[in-house]
Design goal:
single chain; 189 residues; mainly beta; 5-stranded antiparallel β-sheet; 2 helices; 15 strands; 5% helix
Length: 189
C-alpha cells in the first residue's frame, strides 16, 4: 500500500463535557497496510492564513512517512508523488484537515508533503517514522507548474520561510525514491 495516501477519519465520542478521540491505533493502521513505526511527533503553529509549508521530504536513510492532523484551525494538506518511474510522478492529492473534522492524512515514504493554513493560528501535529536529519532534508518548489497545485492563496500571497522560497523545481530533482508498482491514490479509511 505504499502508493496509497490515506485520509484517516477519526471517531469522536461526545458527552456534556466535550469529546474524546483516538488519534492513532497501530492495529487499525496495520489493517490498512501501514506498518510504519512512528518515532517522533512534531507540532507547528502558523499565525497567518496562507502560511505555506512545503513541499518537504527527507531522503534515505532517514526518509519519513507522516501521519498529519490539524489540532486547531484548518489546513489544506497535500501529498506529491516523488517516486521515480511512477506513472503518477509529480501528481498530488489533497484533503482539508481541521480541528472540526478531525481527519488525518497518512503520507508514505516517497511522497513530498505540504500544507497551507486556511484559518489563523492553525496548529498541525504529525507523527514521523524517522528522526529529523537535516543532512537528508529536501524539498520541491511550492509553485512548480509541473505539479500544478491550485493553492487557496490569500490576495497578498503565501507566507513562506526563506528555505521554501528557494526550493528547486521538480525538473531539477533527482529522486532517491523508487516506485513500488502502485500508483498514487487517495483512500479514505
Amino acid at each position: 500500500m505504499s502508493g496509497s495516501v490515506l485520509l484517516v477519519g477519526t471517531k469522536r465520542f461526545g458527552d456534556d463535557r466535550g469529546w474524546f478521540s483516538e488519534t492513532f491505533s497501530a492495529p487499525r493502521m496495520a489493517a490498512h497496510g501501514v506498518v510504519a513505526s512512528f518515532v517522533q511527533d512534531n507540532h507547528s503553529m502558523s499565525r497567518n492564513v496562507g502560511t505555506l509549508r512545503g513541499i518537504h521530504f527527507q531522503r534515505p536513510p532517514h526518509a519519513q512517512a507522516k501521519l498529519v492532523r490539524c489540532a486547531r484551525g484548518a489546513i489544506r494538506d497535500y501529498a506529491v508523488d516523488l517516486r521515480r518511474g511512477s506513472p503518477t510522478y509529480g501528481h498530488h492529492v489533497e484533503a482539508e484537515l481541521s480541528a472540526a473534522n478531525g481527519d488525518q492524512l497518512y503520507v508514505p515514504i516517497g511522497f513530498g508533503h505540504a500544507f497551507i493554513t486556511l484559518e489563523p493560528d492553525s496548529e498541525v501535529i504529525y507523527k514521523v517514522s524517522d528522526v529529523y536529519a537535516p543532512e537528508t532534508d529536501g524539498g520541491i518548489a511550492w509553485n512548480d507548474p509541473a505539479i500544478a497545485i491550485d493553492w487557496p492563496l490569500p490576495a497578498e500571497g503565501p507566507t513562506l520561510s526563506g528555505k521554501d522560497q528557494i526550493l528547486p523545481m521538480l525538473a531539477a530533482f533527482e529522486s532517491p525514491f523508487d516506485y513500488d508498482g502502485e500508483p498514487m491514490r487517495l483512500v479514505r479509511v
